[in-house]
Amino acid sequence: MCGIFGYVGHQSNAAEIVLKGLKRLEYRGYDSWGIAAVGQTGARIAVKKKAGKIGGATVDDLPKSTLAFGHTRWATHGGVTDVNAHPHLDCTGTIALIHNGIFENYEQIKKKLIVRGHHFRSETDTEVAVHLIEEYARSMMFTKAVQKAFNDMKGLNAIIVTDVKNHTLIAARNGSPLVVGFGDGENFLASDAAALLPHTKQVHFLEDDEMAIIGVNAIMLFNAKTGEHLQPKKQRLTWNVRDAEKGDYPFLMLKEIYEQPGVVSDIAANAAYVQTHAAHIKKSRGAYLVGCGTASYAAVAGEYLFSKIAKRHVNVAIGSEFGYHLDFLNRDSLIVAISQSGETMDILESVKKARQKGAKILALVNVLGSTLYREADYKLMIDAGPEKGVASTKAFIGMLAHLTLLAYAVAGKTNDGVAVLTRAVVSMKKVLSDPSVRKIKKLAKKLKKSEHIYVIGRGLSYLTALESALKIKEISYIHAEGLAAGELKHGPLALVTKGTPCIAFLPDDETYGANLAGAMEMKARGGYIIGVSHKPHEVFDYYIQVPTAGEATIMPNVVVAQLLAYYLTIERGFDPDMPRNLAKSVTVK
Ligand code: M6R
Fold this sequence. Notes:
- By secondary structure, the protein is an alpha/beta fold.
- It has three domains: about 5-235, Aminohydrolase, N-terminal nucleophile (Ntn) domain (Glutamine Phosphoribosylpyrophosphate, subunit 1, domain 1); about 250-430, Glucose-6-phosphate isomerase like protein, domain 1 (Rossmann fold, 3-Layer(aba) Sandwich); about 435-575, Glucose-6-phosphate isomerase like protein, domain 1 (Rossmann fold, 3-Layer(aba) Sandwich), CATH 3.40.50.10490.
- Helix 14 packs parallel to helix 16.
- It is globular, with a radius of gyration of 25 Å.
- About 55% of the residues are buried.
- Bound molecules: 5-amino-5-deoxy-1-O-phosphono-D-mannitol (M6R).
């Protein structure tokens, strides 16, 4: 959730490099930020830290230096204040530390350190770690002190530490992601590989309990528990800098929405891979699709697709609930863990629990080298390119495309799967064409003052409704609810009054008639019906056309909802890329 960026090298504007690095991490969501620059050897470490966004801030007031690191904080312990922002310093101001995660046993340790005379300035758990290192460093080498302190920390944590003597960054991780980048006479560190792209593509993803000492000319790796020396597993990042920037688009989310036809046509063009993974699914006795948030809706889509196309039952669980579904797992089970980031804690925990039962893991993941990617037995890359908007768009469409292909491959009809994806590309392009976008913009203007929006669907359109509601609420802050149309009479209809906006997904499939009945029920209570369908109908007060794409019509339908959510957000004057209270990847429980 928090962002980390560190630099050590030959350039003397380290703080500026770090500031730019933090800006590339802003999409993760944060409420305060800070940078430490180590200037002259022996002098106190200079720190600038502030509550709020970076905005137009500069680091001109920090000294010229060749080592700096910074952090974007998403508050857990202690309010959003300048003092609570990272980096934190020890009592002498010569050791600085930043931290991701939750230091679970910080209170006991803090009490002991206070008795030892340490003076605390913030309310954070993080500050305890830097004083603990200071305490240990009185009697041992600095690196050893960091190692010992890290091993004392309970919970899932990543720490980065520097001091004024050693001119290195020391990083250790357990749970929270960290990646080191290899440069030429300079080296880097970040919480997110995409932030390293302008500098290097050669990286090593730190494993749990790995510790790295990052100097100007070398990066050394150790096992943080045993001290054993390790060799880095260098990987080359496949993404480009431009893929991770918004280019001519006003917001990343809009760019990512427009990239979707390309993502799906690339997946369709490279469908040969699917056979191997389909074989894993066929071989398993009991498969679970597990995801969180939008990825959990992809999992629900998978359940419908496998049933409809492959006539095969798969189970579905959301990551945070998966721990309560373990009883039937065994060595023949397969967990399909679905995640854009590959760092969502509830997914990583699910995978861990499934492993303990002997199950195999197939990761459907977008970030190469992420923890989920590394933990999995079988890896299926979503290949949507870097997704930086907090609201997941192209990764979701990529997940749907792979699950559709997998279902067709399990049914022995891969070519039909490719054909259906090709239709989805055509249909998405139509939704993204200027006249269609104008219509959606006009609708956003109409709905911008709504307090509630209801979205209905059946079958695959049920989860289209769920995903649409999530997109609308998370960025526009309008309360939206996705419903199975058949559930209306069981309660939600009570909320529909004159003018209540109701979006109905009515694709050309077996759900059409029953879905229409749902729209009519809403209309009869005064609802304002927005029909998303292949053909108009008199019950619709507003109509958005979506050409049929068979089982893949869910994709263009979701694009309509993404655009509506985006333009509602713009109309209401909010930033779609950085919704309040949310982070791009949820790396804590
Ligand atoms: O990185 P993941 O796919 O594991 O993330 C899962 C959810 O946190 C994510 O989809 C979240 O719900 C998004 N904000 C939805 O737009």
